[in-house]
Amino acid sequence: MRETVLTSKENYMDSLLLEENENKKMSRQFAEELGLARISISPAEAQLIKTLVRLHGAKKFVEIGTLTGLSAQYLFEALPEGGELWTLEKDPRHGEKSAKVFANLDQSKKKIHLVMGDARAELERISAEGPFDGVFIDGNKAAYFDYLTWAEKNLRVGGLILADNIFLSGAVWGQATQQKFSEKQIRIMQEFNQRLADPALFEAAVVPSYEGLYVAIKK
Ligand SMILES: C[S@@+](CC[C@H](N)C(=O)[O-])C[C@H]1O[C@@H](n2cnc3c(N)ncnc32)[C@H](O)[C@@H]1O
After folding, report:
1. Closest approach atom of ligand 1 to CA 40
2. Atom of ligand 1 nearest to the CA of 139
3. Residues 6+ apart with CB under 8 A from 31
4. How confident is the model at residue 11, as a pLDDT?
5. 78 in a structural domain
6. Within a domain: residue 178?
7. Is 4 a domain residue?
8. What is the pLDDT of residue 124?
9. In the chain, pLDDT over 70 holds for what percent of residues?
10. Ligand 1 pocket: which of 77, 102, 138 to mutate (most atoms <8 Å of CB)?
11. What spacing in Å lies between the alpha carbon of 177 and ligand 1's midpoint?
């Protein structure tokens, strides 16, 4: 257990986990240097996505939004031998830092591919490697619906879809938030959440984590 001041449910959940290893700490440090520590995944949510991917048994997995490679490390750990992770990032500063942490991973039994560029275009390019077993959507909010459309085409039946920040800090149900979201971002996230709720297409559930995590299986 880590020594933290337990002021909230989130801190308490994080405190139950083992301290993150040096490479994950490096990702957090890089995010801090970029002034983006607050958008890195929390330890508890990272452990949740890792556990879900491990339970699912996914071998070929895609992540949209690498930042400094933190959630990618958890996903990579969840993959079995022979597994592959494609992680997509648009910002070269984030890519440069992620490449440094990925260079420290043992890739002799599984692989991680850092794919630089706009995810909408890059997803089309990597489609040839599919069908994939799962995707973690954690990139730009305005493109979430497009990412889901891609997943519907490129995941196998039974594929796993994980999507973070689906509450937009409460903006999806009309709550005023400190972080400003555009009308377009809110509308797209509402449409995204509604589509995942369609039982003809997905078996899905919302995990009421701080940011909201959608967990769905493609039918
Ligand atoms: C919330 S952060 C990802 C956090 C990361 N998954 C983690 O928890 O360690 C979102 C990332 O998506 C990237 N991003 C934003 N727009 C993008 C786009 N169009 N294509 C690819 N990546 C994008 C941002 O640069 C940022 O690094």
Report:
1. 8
2. 12
3. 37, 39, 40, 67, 68, 70
4. 86
5. yes
6. yes
7. no
8. 98
9. 97
10. 138
11. 21
Ligand 1 center to residue 139 CA distance, Å?
4
- Hunting for tokens 């339970």 — which residue is that? 55
**pLDDT confidence bin for 4, thresholds 50/70/90:** very low
In a domain, 1, yes or no: no
**Which numbered atom of ligand 1 lies nearest the CA of 165?**
1
Could you give phi then psi for residue 45, rounded to 5 degrees? -70, -35
Distance from Cα 65 to the centre of ligand 1, integer Å: 3
3 state SS of 111 = strand
3-state secondary structure 136-195: EECCCHHHHHHHHHHHHHHEEEEEEEEEECCCHHHHHHCCCCCCCCCHHHHHHHHHHHHH
CATH of the domain at 40: 3.40.50.150
Domain that residue 100 falls in: 9-218
**Is the full-model pTM beyond 0.90?**
yes
Position 187 pLDDT exceeds 60: yes
Domain count, the chain: 1
